[in-house]
């Protein structure tokens, strides 16, 4: 029982970031070829839902 849960956790810990990176990469490649489209925006939005990028901190000094 515990092994099954650990295995599920391990798969999700690897699968979710890989899926988000794949969607983001596909989105960028579509945008570079054809420009911004609904499909590329949806892929990017889906990747952000799965794994949001950390916001870059703006420095004023």
Automatic annotation (TrEMBL):
Region (Disordered): 29-48
Residues making up the signal peptide according to the UniProt record: 1-20
Superkingdom in the source lineage: Bacteria
The name this protein goes by in its record: Uncharacterized protein
Source organism per UniProt: Micromonospora qiuiae
Keywords: Signal
